[in-house]
Amino acid sequence: MATAIVSKHFLAGLKDLELAKCSISSQTISSRQSVHIFHHRYQSCSLSMNGCQGDPRVPVGTIETRTFPAVASPAFATDSLNLAISNLKANPPPFTSGIIRLQVPIQQRIEAIDWLHAQHQLLPRCFFSCRSRRKDDGHLFTDFTNGNGHAHVHNLVSVAGVGSAVLFRHIHQFSYSDWKSIKRFLSAKCPLIRAYGAIRFDAMANISSEWESFGSFYFIVPQVEFDELEGSSILAVTIAWDNALSWTWEQAIDALQLTMNQVSSTIVKLGKEVARTLILSNNQIPNKTYWDLALKRALQIIKRSSSPLIKVVLARSSEVVTATDIDPIAWLACLQIYLQVEGENAYQFCLQPPNAPAFIGNTPEQLFHRKWLGVSSEALAGTRARGQSKALDLQIERDLLSSPKDHLEFTIVRDSIRRKLEAICNRVVMEPKKAIRKFPRVQHLYAQLAGTLRSEDDEFDILSSLHPTPAVCGFPTEEARLLIAETEVLDRGMYAGPVGWFGGGESEFAVGIRSALVEKGLGALIYAGTGIVEGSDPSLEWDELELKTSQFTKFLKLEVPSREKIENLGRIN
C-alpha cells in the first residue's frame, strides 16, 4: 500500500506526525483487509478479450454500426436485437477481427440509470451522464438512422452499459500504446462505439486491495448498452473479436447471447431517496490530528524560499460502514434527481469491474472535451458554501471573488491549464477569465479555455499533459505529487483521476472528484480533497472537506448509533 512508503527525509524531526501516521496506517490496513476478504454478491457477464494485448498498429477488419427500425419499448428492442444477433450468427462477417454495433431506437425516453438498476447487478457495468448541453451546441448532438435511411438528431443525455465487448486494463501506467489499442476499435463513422472508463490518479503509487480490480486504468466497450436521449432512447449490443488475441467471432457472439439472456426489459423508476440506515462506524482517514500536522508541514514547505512548491492538494477518505447495504446505483440516482431539481451542470459516473466495488461520483470539473480538432477545458478552484438567501449567497460570492488566497489558488490552476494547451494547440482562448460557477451546495471560481489541436493524435498528449491538474494535485506538478505520496495515508485509486470516454471523432473526460467507492456489505469510502496554498487554515480546510462529502451523506440521512442501538442490532443478528 501507498501508506507503507514514507519518505524519511520528509518526516525527519516530526515525531508526532510519524506516530500519527503509523496509527492511521494500521487502522487503514485493517479496514482494507475487510474489503479484500468480502464475498461479492454480483453476477458476472461472460469474459472478453483485453484489447491492450493486441498490436495497436494493425487495424481491425471492420468497424460497423447497424441500425434497425424504431420500436415502442425496451422489450420490443430486446426482441429485435436477439433476432438480429441470430441472423448475424448465421451469416458471420468475413474478417478475423472487428467490432459491430447493433442498435434499436426506442420511441420513448427512459432514464439510462433506471435501466442499469434493472440489470440485477450484472458486472462489469458503467454509467456516464453528460453535462446538460445548450441547444446551440450542434457538435454535441448525435446522428443515427432509423433503418429506413432517415437521419435523426438527438442529444445524448446519459449512457449505461453491462458486460464488455472488449476491455482495456493493465497495471502499468496508461501509455500512448494503450491509447492506440483503444482507438483501434473506434471510428468516427460509428460515433456511439465508445470506450468508457477511468485512469488512476498516480500510476506510480502502490495499488491497495480495494482498487486492485481497476488496475492502473480500466476501460470497456459495453456488450449491452442503453443510451438515454432527449425524447427517445437506444438499446444496443456490441460484438468485438480478434483471432490474434484468441478471441474468435464464435466466442464473442456466444458470450453476447449469454449476456442478453440475463438482461431485463422490465424497468422501474428509482425512488428519490436512499433508505435510512445506521452508521456502524465513520472513520476519517487521516484523522483530524494527523491532518493538522500534515497540513502545517505542507505550509512550512510552501513558505520556504528554497522550495518551488506553491500549492499541494491533500485528500481524505471517510470510511462509512452501515447496517444495511448502500446501493451505488440508487445513491447515484439520488444525486441525479437532486441535480435536475437544482439545475447543476455536472457529470455523474459509475464504473464497476467484476469482483470489485463500484466507483461512483458527481464531479463538477471537466478535464477536457474534444470534437475533431477542437478541444476545451476549464479551471475550477476555490470553494464556498451556498448562502441560505439570495443576499447571503451574493455576499459569499463577493467574498470568494475578492479572497487573495482563493485568487492565488485559482490562477495557479487556470494558468497551468492555459500553458499546457498552448504547448499542444495552435490557438487558445480563455473566456471567462474569472467567474463564479454555482452548484447546489457549493460555488467555485471558474474559467473556460478552448483551443485547436494540430492533429487528432494529439488527444493523448492533451490527456497526459492536463492530468493531473493543479486543482487535484498542486503546482509544480511533480513536487506536489511527491509530497502527496509522502504524506497521504490512503490510496486515491481513480479518485481525482480522469473519468470518461474515448470515441472515434470525439472524447470527453471529467476529473473524478466528489466520488466514492461503494461495496455491498461494507459501506463506502467517500473521497474529498482541498488545495493548500500560503494562507490556508487547517481547520477551514477540514470544514471544506466536510462540505464536499456532505453531498453524499445528505442522501443517506445517516446517524451514528448509540451504544444501546449497536447492542440491539447485535441481538437481532
UniProtKB/TrEMBL annotation:
One Pfam family linked to the record: Chorismate_bind
The protein's enzyme class: isomerase
Coiled-coil segments: none
Keywords, ordered alphabetically: Isomerase, Magnesium
Catalytic activity as recorded in UniProt: chorismate = isochorismate
Keyword Isomerase: yes
EC number of the protein: 5.4.4.2
InterPro entries: ADC_synthase, Chorismate_C, IsoChor_synthase, MenF-like
Domain Chorismate-utilising enzyme C-terminal intervals: 291-548
Signal peptide: none
NCBIfam families per UniProt: isochor_syn
Protein family (similarity comment): Belongs to the isochorismate synthase family.
The protein's name in its UniProt record: isochorismate synthase
